């Protein structure tokens, strides 16, 4: 079985590594046939440079995806699986500026590039989707909780897809970083998987029968469940979905088919090996001197200890109103016997920060190396190391990246399920 993949918003290639090249993914059925990475705010395309250095012969595109879709759509080959970690933005609907033939999302909102590819491919649209986003997607925006995700689901339903989703914290399944992301799998109505999901008992799908739960099992009892309907009128969803409600109807796992969703609050279940921060560290003697923290920078105003400590500060706003700004303390230094905290994009650089990782090892305080940040996301060592890329930019990449171990396991479950479903379908046809 061969599964052709298009990777959008590719960054430094996390999906590609997880599907094609993860060390245990031998004889992978996945093959990335086209990829796209474009950073509109920078002249130098750093992430694309890393991608092209890692896969020099790839069919890779470093152009604005919106322009490719509008002017050179033929560059995007037909494929079986579309993957991408798209930015979490305001997905509200606006009429196209060019014409009034239909509703389209605001320019620059990259969800609508995914929607456009699926729509314009028509009968050649990919049969499967694997998408990733921050878990905030399920409850944004603050003024209309869950609306953005509802717009996505309404769009995918109109395009003929059923969906299952799950918020996965990598550390809860033995991986070295506490990183919560929502993963979304889509199945086109032409597939056996769509038919199985549609006819399933939805609670059973989320507990045992679905694709995600094969690799990321959950406990049998759901803390909470909810059901609902999403309008086929996407403008109505954009304007009115969940208006005047304080909570999103979407919980951390769920399915949607034919506009109906069934969602549940699931709890992870895992008893296997667990990787902790200390497991991924390089030897102290191999750490460059610039990553060690001078003891004099540990204490005092704006020091590491100050920034990471709890504080209550009186402040005055623009209107002259006094208020107390308060924040709790963070573990300092970071615990070595537990998974790491989430990597953020501001991880790099020597300046003291509340959110950067600091460890104490062999009598010294230090920041994490780029190679250690790569390991926390389960990338190959030095994947982002090329002459044109600074250590700070390498840290930025990992703050933007996904945990490739999750992609690998989802890819394993998806390909096995597709193969089994196709075998079952072929057998049923022969019996008839």
What do you see in this structure?
By secondary structure, the protein is of the alpha/beta class. The chain folds into 2 domains: 299 residues, Rossmann fold (3-Layer(aba) Sandwich); 124 residues, DNA Methylase, Chain A, domain 2 (Alpha-Beta Complex). Helix content is 29%, strand content 20%. The chain has 13 helices and 16 strands. The protein is globular and about 70 Å long.
- Our Rg estimate from Cα atoms comes to 23 Å
CATH topology of the largest domain: Rossmann fold
Distance between the termini: 24 Å
Counted by DSSP, the helix tally is 13
Q: Mind summarizing the main beta sheet?
A: 10 strands, mixed
| Mean pLDDT metric | 91
Short account of what is shown:
By secondary structure, the protein is of the alpha/beta class. It is 29% helix and 20% strand.
Question: Topology, pairings included?
Answer:
Elements: E1 3-8, H1 14-21, E2 30-36, H2 46-54, E3 60-61, H3 65-71, E4 81-85, E5 93-95, E6 103-105, H4 111-121, E7 128-134, H5 147-158, E8 161-169, E9 180-188, H6 192-199, H7 202-209, H8 212-215, E10 225-229, H9 234-240, E11 253-257, E12 260-264, H10 304-308, E13 311-316, E14 322-327, E15 358-361, E16 364-367, H11 370-376, H12 391-400, H13 404-431
Parallel strand pairs: 1-2, 1-4, 2-3, 4-7
Antiparallel strand pairs: 5-6, 7-9, 8-9, 8-11, 10-12, 11-12, 13-14, 15-16
Helix pairs in contact: 1-13, 5-9
């Amino acid at each position: 079985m061969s599964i052709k993949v298009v990777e959008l918003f590719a960054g430094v290639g996390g999906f590609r590594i997880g599907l094609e090249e993860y060390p245990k993914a031998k004889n992978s059925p996945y093959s990335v046939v086209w990829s796209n990475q474009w950073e509109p705010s920078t002249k130098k395309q750093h992430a694309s440079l890393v991608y092209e250095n890692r896969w020099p012969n790839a069919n890779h595109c470093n152009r604005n995806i919106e322009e490719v879709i509008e002017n050179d759509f033929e560059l995007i080959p037909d494929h079986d699986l579309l993957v991408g970690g798209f930015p979490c933005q305001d997905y509200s609907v606006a009429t196209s500026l060019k014409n009034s033939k239909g509703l389209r999302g605001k320019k620059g909102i990259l969800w609508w590039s995914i929607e456009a590819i699926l729509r314009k491919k028509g009968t050649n649209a990919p049969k499967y989707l694997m998408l990733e986003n921050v878990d905030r997607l399920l409850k944004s925006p603050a003024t209309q909780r869950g609306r953005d995700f509802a717009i996505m689901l309404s769009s995918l339903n109109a395009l003929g897809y059923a969906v299952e989703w799950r918020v996965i914290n990598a550390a809860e399944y033995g991986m070295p970083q506490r990183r919560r992301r929502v993963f979304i799998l889509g199945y086109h109505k032409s597939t056996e998987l769509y038919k199985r999901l549609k006819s399933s008992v939805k609670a059973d799908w989320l507990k045992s029968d679905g694709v995600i739960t094969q690799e990321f099992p959950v406990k049998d009892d759901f803390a909470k469940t909810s059901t609902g309907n999403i309008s086929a009128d996407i403008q109505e969803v954009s304007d009115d979905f969940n208006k005047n409600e304080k909570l999103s109807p979407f919980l951390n796992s769920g399915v949607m088919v034919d506009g109906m969703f069934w969602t549940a609050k699931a709890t992870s279940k895992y008893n296997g090996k667990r990787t902790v921060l200390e497991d991924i560290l390089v030897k102290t003697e191999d750490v460059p001197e610039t990553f060690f923290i001078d003891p004099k920078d540990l204490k005092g105003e704006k020091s590491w200890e100050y920034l990471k400590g709890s504080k209550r500060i009186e402040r005055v706003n623009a209107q002259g109103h006094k208020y107390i700004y308060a924040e709790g303390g963070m573990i300092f230094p970071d615990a070595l016997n537990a998974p790491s905290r989430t990597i953020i994009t501001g991880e790099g650089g020597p300046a003291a920060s509340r959110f950067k990782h600091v460890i104490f090892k062999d009598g010294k305080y230090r920041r994490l190396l780029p190679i250690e940040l790569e390991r926390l996301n389960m990338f190959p060592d030095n994947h982002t190391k090329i002459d044109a890329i600074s250590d700070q930019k390498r840290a930025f990449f990992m703050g933007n990246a996904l945990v490739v171990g999750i992609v690998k396991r989802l890819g394993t479950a998806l390909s096995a399920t597709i193969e089994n479903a196709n075998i079952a379908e072929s057998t049923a046809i022969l019996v008839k």
